Fold Protein NRT1/ PTR FAMILY 5.1.
Amino acid sequence: MERGDHKPLLDESSSWSYQDNNALVEEGDTLRYRSRKKPFSWKAPAIVLGFEFLESIAYSGISLNLVVYLADVLHGTTASNAANVDTWNGTTFLAPVLGAFLADTYLGKYKTIAISVILYLLGMLTITLSAMIPSLQPASCNGTSCPAATEFQYAVFFIALYLIAIGTGGVKSALMPLGADQYDETNPDEAQKKQSFFSLFFVAVNLGVFIAGTVVVWIQQNIAWGLGFGISLACLVVATVGFFVGTPTYRVQMPTGSPLKSVVRVLIVAFKKRNLELPKDSALLYEGEMGSGTEWQHKLDHTDGFRCLDKAAVMASPYSTDLSPATPWLSCTVTQVEEVKILVRMVPIWLTCIFYSASMCQTATTFLQQGVLMNSTIGSLSIPAASLSSIEVIFMMIFVVIQDQIIIPICRKRFQNPSGLTQLQRMGIGRFLVIFSMAAAAGIETWRLSAYKDNKRLSILWQVPQFLILAWSDVFCGIALLEFFYGEAPESMRSLCSAFSFLAISLGYYLNSFVVTFVAGITKSVDGKGWLPADLNMGHLDYYFWLWAGISAINFVVFVALSWNYTHKKVVLK
């Protein structure tokens, strides 16, 4: 069969059903899938966006105030509370990788979400009950004496907490790819709508965080923890009901088996054929049947680069071009080879995302520590340093509208590009802007230290510019990051590749923690105080911000070099 050809009917060996209008038909004893998708419905992505908004409130309602609950209610020590929160956060960001693997390999995105949300609900229900039932909480503090929670009380709480981690990991791994799957990327109108979907998904996440951080957290600390957790539970219940009610509207793709098996196969076959010569004409490389269960995917055209991998698709004796089960490890198609090339090209881009995420972590650490030392009184109002993170969310939502309604349309006309700016261009702008945010923070810190020496306190409002620039950076880079890892990924690995954006965030936290510890230790050994002493008025937090400005600048240069030579995947339109 020539490259680009396809069959109208495809054998389907999987037991999963493909939820599409008349898509799964029975012919004799064989189930076959027609490669015709149901018409686009706005209801499906709307349900996904609503789900993400409510899930973001539910998850943030637990995560944002977790360390306070451990201290005030369970009476844990400072060290154990920090360790427990860090461990749980690490699990929460790693869980999407496992969930994505299951979604791409065995369950599919829909079933992964359905199973995960049940575990999620069970965890949310348990943690809500643990905050309401007195026997599941230690006794209240008596003066300075605070009885610690019993092993049973801790066990109930942490079982619930890790059920939430597993549940949200499964949801995060598959929900965004499921929403993006509703759009046919070969249809120009739907492809443009998909770009807006990613922007709205970004807004849904951050709006949920904003509401949880302002309303739910306040209720937890000022009214009742049980009520606050109950609101999170109610949001997840509504999201779950809406998700299942919308089942008939979804375009759902079935899993095609382990994508990692295909990757390993290409590497092994290429090694076996390492001594063969490549044909001068890439059309002579093998592109035939891709095996049962994968024909619904688009084929990929050959690209230059990593030519050693092309040898896996060379047609030459004694290596068979038969892809039957009898010889599965002797032949690969051009599409399978190109999928491996995609992953190899994406890895360096992904590594720069870790450094970018580490710089963004300053909002929850050093930016907050800087704000605590500033004058937070504005007139008769007192603005907590942590509130500026909520202001950043407001800025981000405003910038999303500006980007989608003004910047992108102008760029579409200027560059004659349907996307306006490419994903890599937007990611580059985000990385460029973060340099100025770190520089602004450094400048403000130098000014603050100078004011402190004169017995003055700088207003916390001077932090707004660094948060504003960081918000704009996040809008450019955050949305493009979602699009890039979904759009560039092999179709059989879209959930897994999308989940790697969460892994980059997780590793960014670890990198930031390492840099803080390393810098504090090295600089303390030089002058006895260091840049980051317990009393920052005696240190040089400004030097630390300049360090991150330098790291961000190097990361930007590396990213530009990688982007300049990046080869996008080429889909063969059927």
